[in-house]
Amino acid sequence: MEYKITIPQKFQNITINNLLEEKWLVPRKQRHFLRTKKNILVNNQNVNWNDKVMEGDVVTIKFDLEDFPQTKITYGQKEFVDILFEDEHIIIVNKPEGMKTHPNNPNEIALLNHVSAYLNHPAYVVHRLDQETSGAILFAKNQFILPILSQMLEKRQIHRTYQALSQGNFNKTIFTVNKPIGRDRHDKKKQIVSSSGKKAITNVKIIKNFSQVSLVECKLETGRTHQIRVHLAYESHPLIGDKVYGKLKANRLMLHAKELSFNHPLTEQKIQVFAPSKTFDDTLQIFS
Questions:
Q1: 64: annotated active-site residue
Q2: CA-to-CA distance for 62 and 52, rounded, in angstroms?
Q3: Given 57, 64, 130, 184, the catalytic residue
Q4: What are the residue boundaries of the Pseudouridine synthase RsuA/RluA-like domain, all occurrences included (predicted)?
Q5: What are the tens digits of pLDDT across the range 122-171?
Q6: Residue-wise pLDDT tens digits, 60-81
Q7: Predicted model pTM
Q8: Does the residue 270 lie in any domain?
Q9: What is the CATH number of the domain that holds 165?
Q10: Which structural domain range is residue 52 located in?
């Protein structure tokens, strides 16, 4: 693999070492390969890692096949891939409800398989959406960018905004649910608010109260399994169509990842995508 990256203005006058470690968040193992094999060039010239790069410099990064473990995946159908954004390193797609993000066994076909079929090589999951949830989801197109994006996700540099329809009306317009979430010991399919669980923070904004339901916007600071569903159920406002945590039925789970935004780790380009959902909008009309 070989990648050519032009240094943006924000990164000028920084050493190669700091560029890779602090700006591009390249993991130590990959930095070691690049250093020992002399597989990084600036303007097609070998460089010392203490040399500085300037705006407009072209950095070439090379990886050998043995630098990454080989990945095998069964290809799905590329026709199922609804692309919201794509470049050399990342692809953001609009996941339909009812489709798994990734397979749990070799015989399953999920969105990951379809995206890999579109790319004609394995894609890599950066974050997940529940099977019942639709919307914007980010995949890495190579194993160079994957750990960088994973670190960004961990550092809350990838921002996700969801729209949801919940049962009942709220007596507040903006609030935060800061309650740890863990697995329900009595039901493996469920998560619960638990003092022994992992930190989970959901910021909630009420968009509109209808007669019996409310349209809300949720922004995640963490990414626990079923986080929005568990937190709103804990607040006594379970999601419409949630067969696990709620009671009010609908054609689908009323949870949709409508927006995904972040600064591209290599170019500082602002990436912001919005994912439409006809099924969410149609079901919202029924309840509103």
A1: no
A2: 19
A3: 130
A4: 89-233
A5: 999 999 999 999 999 999 999 889 989 998 998 899 999 999 999 999 98
A6: 998 887 777 778 899 999 999 9
A7: 0.90
A8: no
A9: 3.30.2350.10
A10: 2-66
